[in-house]
């Protein structure tokens, strides 16, 4: 049934497009300098007999660990890997929680109550704790053995992902897994490659932002390591910061039910990465482009990713697509005039 | 912005409410008779050195394993547990895939191409395979070492969940974990307790079905083992079978962004179970009842669950809520006149 709506009030009162964060490249370069710390954390952990790696966080901080968790699980024969919402983790912890577990807890402010509580709880049970947050002095850091910080107020998700990628690489090396020799080069190319990606994608993202509407729910489909970008775009940027109905669906599930809602009354965004799960999103895109109306494909193949070795593009495409998701939110703010900082409830009412 | 819509065409042309499936109790009783087979599978697997349990499936078959995976992860110190979409599993398999992995593959028909392919792929890599499907003669069974079947066309999710619960119990016993002595009694109470639950909940579910609308997206929030019920209600019953915009969100993430869309333009269903994650949904309910308009709480505490020992209600509440989700779909069909069997694309076009 077509939903008849008044024309969107905000379209004629947009906001200026935010500039790409001036601290973007310096922040990510700073993250690369945490390599030695990541190696020390991994060395200590494996030396102390750690066998289980659990990432915890809430909302966007949960989603920012999906890339690392997926990367590790596909490569580590010796470690078990999980990514769990922090409140879920504390309420129903894995039975393996104990001294053999390294818990990597993420919270931008370092003050997210559930994540701080989960860190304290895990530490009491003997786990090793790593805080991933903005700075080195906050409650989460206080509850942890190590602090991996990125020092930026706005370059957050990509910074966390690169910190966790670095930690993942160190854990793999420490446990004797084969790591492609160019892995480090791919990571070091990212600060400028991701800046370039945003500049190049800006016109396309502006167009997508204009063609989305608050009246149509927006489904964000992706796969594998890029599910983090799909989660944060739908739940954080669209629902929280743009008051749009939205959700994320794994490409492997999309054609088993949800595709029935591919109609003129909903928008579909597909994040298409270059890792081994790409065939899943390709199949969705093929179907959606044949039958859908408001279908928007954001494909990392369109990005040069200068400096990233061709055979390792799949290792970093999820980070690149995450950055484009963040940038799409900027464009949506510009198109609608709805500030990304406006909230109904968050930090305004008790919950 | 209020979405002005014509009155729903289908509300005045409902369908008769389907009866509760006549095969409901016999099917679940039949499942209980698979106990010896579950014990044999577990005994063989652990005897052969299995350390990793991976559940695979697509869509509703993926979600029907969430209960067992959550149950096992919280109790097993010796096994690693994962639940992965079958296409994701084959595209980017866990590095641990090999002879020490037991892959439990679910597909109602036993013919889901991605799940059959994942089973064959895992078996080639040395894994032990268990098929969970309707019958004992289908492609998935052909690719597997064992077949756990439930023999019903319509009593599906609860049957799968009970088969997997039984297998989980056997795996825990086989690996020497403590299992509450009343665990079996709780399972044996379910066939009649779940029938009773549906009969008792029918009036309330009918009311919820009438108050949902296709114009408002419906968010289904839950936690822990009950996320399976939230997944299947939103993606299978609402999106696929009722053409409603819907999604599922973990209660631990809900207050970190998505709650900003708790408005008069969306519906919220909270599945509230009695496992250790209940505080997460209680917090959401408290917030939503204060600020929301179309908020519907489905709480297993309202069910007698006759015969289930009080202290084990949390082990089975997710199964009970899953059954109520299925029954809610029946009521929604009755209220809208939109047959649960109608499809736009599934099995009608190429994809």
From TrEMBL, chains A, B:
<protein>
    <recommendedName>
        <fullName>SIS domain-containing protein</fullName>
    </recommendedName>
</protein>
<dbReference type="GO" id="GO:0006047">
    <property type="term" value="P:UDP-N-acetylglucosamine metabolic process"/>
</dbReference>
<dbReference type="GO" id="GO:0004360">
    <property type="term" value="F:glutamine-fructose-6-phosphate transaminase (isomerizing) activity"/>
</dbReference>
<feature type="domain" description="SIS">
    <location>
        <begin position="42"/>
        <end position="177"/>
    </location>
</feature>
<keyword id="KW-0808">Transferase</keyword>
<keyword id="KW-0032">Aminotransferase</keyword>
<dbReference type="Pfam" id="PF01380">
    <property type="entry name" value="SIS"/>
</dbReference>
<dbReference type="InterPro" id="IPR046348">
    <property type="entry name" value="SIS_dom_sf"/>
</dbReference>
<dbReference type="InterPro" id="IPR001347">
    <property type="entry name" value="SIS_dom"/>
</dbReference>
<dbReference type="GO" id="GO:0097367">
    <property type="term" value="F:carbohydrate derivative binding"/>
</dbReference>
<dbReference type="InterPro" id="IPR035488">
    <property type="entry name" value="FrlB_SIS"/>
</dbReference>
<dbReference type="GO" id="GO:0006487">
    <property type="term" value="P:protein N-linked glycosylation"/>
</dbReference>
<dbReference type="GO" id="GO:0006002">
    <property type="term" value="P:fructose 6-phosphate metabolic process"/>
</dbReference>
